[in-house]
Specification:
The chain is globular. It has an 18-stranded antiparallel barrel. The chain has 525 residues and is mainly beta. It has 6 helices and 27 strands.
Length: 525
């Protein structure tokens, strides 16, 4: 049976609204805001610090993260536990945030960000998307239901100056969270790059489900996996694209921790359906979702999206990531890796692989009262550059697709890495948090954009494939960035960042040295 994407989306949104409405009235009250959005550097740093010191159970590489997981871990920390002062400070900060999130009253906040030039590299910490980026948010807990209304202003956006990014409704059922809206997500252990799903692009309208607290599943075999997290979302792309309008976007992630400190994760991202004649049937969606069945039994005769015909199910990427953390003496360390592959010819083939590697080392200076962290991370999206030792790399394949010729994008921004196709990024950072919870950082970045000089190409059916949305020509840009976050005061929370750079995209033969600043202020009521 063939169905239109819009009809499918309408049915899903009605179902999500029904579930939400039932949740509002059928269950008693419990905690307030159920999740932590990606974007808060200090919360993530504190959670990773507690994880390294052995007092935070469960996987921490999927965002949003449930407050239920944080609250359980804080409650399990003994007051008599021998922990360093900076770990105690992190516990106090998290406890304060958890108490605020648990407030069942109506909450309201205002956030304003200013910049003279939008950043090219968007990491977990996000940042302003326009010269003026302002948002007003109101949220409320209703029993097990939660609703957040968020209205933002940015000039000349796709859908007008006003946007609803961050608006979401959610309902908790036992240990599950069901949500619908414009929810930001981040999959994987990287800080500068998430190869399948990041906050680089604005969030599409979506519905989803995830576990609130990734505890161990006490069933045969499954208990061996340790704490388990699962996330599944489905949404619609933008209404106007050069290829197919309103594609169906599906994201899923499964992560677990078989040994404390060792986290493993598998993520998938899919583009399917869409206007302009794309088939959107139960068969096509199931073939894309269950590649194993298609590979073994040859359902429909076509393997996933490896051919050259438009009847293939769609575009998909899949990743495997690993993160390990522990202590060494009085310091903590972590190392992580994410490997992503484009569409492959069955479950036994991994093709067009991109890579992210990262490591952190943290410690505490008693003399200066500073918790410091050194971080290094490197990403490369020139597919197979490090894996096809004999055949060489495959330029132009990462984040691209012969069906969805606009690429793995939403509203002209890559859904995964901000460096897009055939890009390379290295980041070195020193950050510190003092006794007053003020957070400072100094960062060096080297970004190589469009390293293989890709340019728009004409396909055999007359469509244009847009190979690189960041720069039409190769550019190497070095950045120096320095910033500070001030903890909440009665006047709100502040941050500032200054950055200088020695080049810009789309400036062949030139080196446009320049600088930028970014200021942010937020306050809750």
């Amino acid at each position: 049976m063939i169905c239109h994407v819009t009809a499918w989306a309408r049915q899903c949104l009605v179902a999500a609204s029904t579930i939400f409405a039932i949740g509002l009235y059928a269950f008693p009250s419990e905690a307030g805001s159920p999740f932590i959005d990606p974007g808060d550097r200090l919360i993530r740093q504190d959670i990773e610090l507690l994880k390294a010191h052995g007092v935070f159970n469960g996987v921490i590489s999927t965002w949003p993260m449930g407050w239920k997981q944080v609250e359980r871990n804080l409650a399990n920390i003994s007051p008599d536990a021998k922990l360093p002062p900076h770990v105690r400070a992190a516990i106090m900060r998290l406890q304060g945030q958890a108490d605020t999130a648990a407030d069942r009253g109506i909450g309201a906040s205002l956030r304003t960000q200013f910049t003279n030039e939008e950043r090219i590299i968007r990491d977990f910490g996000q940042g302003a998307r326009d010269e003026v980026d302002t948002r007003v948010t109101v949220d409320k807990q209703f029993g097990r239901g939660y609703i957040r209304l968020s209205a933002g202003y940015r000039e000349d956006e796709f859908d007008g100056d006003i946007n609803l990014d961050g608006t979401v409704g959610a309902v908790t059922f036992a240990n599950w969270l069901v949500f619908a809206g414009f929810q930001d997500q981040w999959f994987g252990p990287g800080f500068d790059t998430a190869l399948v799903l990041s906050t680089n692009a604005r969030p599409p309208a979506k519905i989803g489900i995830q576990r609130l607290d990734p505890k161990r599943i006490n069933l045969p075999v499954l208990r061996w996996l340790g704490p388990v997290q699962f996330n599944f979302t489905a949404g619609l792309g933008e209404p106007t694209r050069e290829d197919f309008d309103r594609p169906l976007l599906i994201f899923s992630r499964f992560s677990f921790e078989p040994v404390y400190g060792l986290q493993l994760g598998v993520s998938r991202g899919l583009q399917l359906c869409g206007g302009g004649g794309r088939v959107c049937s139960v068969s096509s969606i199931s073939r894309a979702l269950v590649t194993v069945v298609d590979f073994v039994f040859q359902v429909g005769g076509d393997l996933d999206n490896t051919g050259v015909v438009l009847t293939d199910p769609g575009n998909q990427v899949a990743s495997l990531d690993v993160r390990y953390t522990n202590t060494i003496g009085k310091m903590t360390y972590a190392g992580y890796l994410e490997l992503v592959a484009e569409d492959s010819a069955g479950v036994t083939a991994i093709g067009d692989a991109s890579l992210t590697l990262g490591a952190t080392l943290s410690g505490y200076s008693e003399r200066f009262g500073l918790n410091w962290t050194l971080r290094a991370e490197a990403s490369d999206t020139e597919a197979d550059r490090y894996f096809a030792l004999f055949s060489g790399s495959t330029p132009g394949s990462a984040n691209q697709n012969f069906i969805f010729t606009d690429g793995y994008t939403h509203r002209d921004l890559f859904i995964g890495p901000s460096i897009g196709t055939d890009g390379r990024l290295f980041t070195g950072e020193l950050s510190a948090t003092d006794r007053a919870s003020r957070h400072y950082y100094f960062r060096y970045r080297r970004a190589i954009l469009n390293a293989t000089a890709l340019s728009p190409s004409l396909l055999s059916d007359g469509r244009i494939r847009f190979n690189n949305l960041i720069s039409d020509n190769p550019e190497t840009v070095n950045f120096l960035e320095v910033g500070a976050f001030i903890p909440p005061t009665r006047f709100g929370r502040f941050y500032a960042e200054a950055r200088i750079f020695d080049d810009e995209p789309n400036t062949p033969g030139e080196s446009d040295f320049g600088g930028a600043f970014e200021l942010g202020w937020s306050i809750g009521f």
